[in-house]
Amino acid sequence: MDFLASVLGRMNGFLYRCRADENYTMLELTDGIHRIFGYPADELIGNRIRTFSSLMHEEDLAAMDVAVGKGLETKTNWTLEYRIRHANGDLIWVTETGGGVWDEKGELLYLEGSIMNIQSLYSRIDERTAEMANAASKTAEILHALRYLKLLAVNAGIEAARAGQAGSGFAVLAQEMRALANQSEETARAITIRKSAA
Question: Containing domain of residue 64, as a range?
Answer without folding.
Answer: 3-117
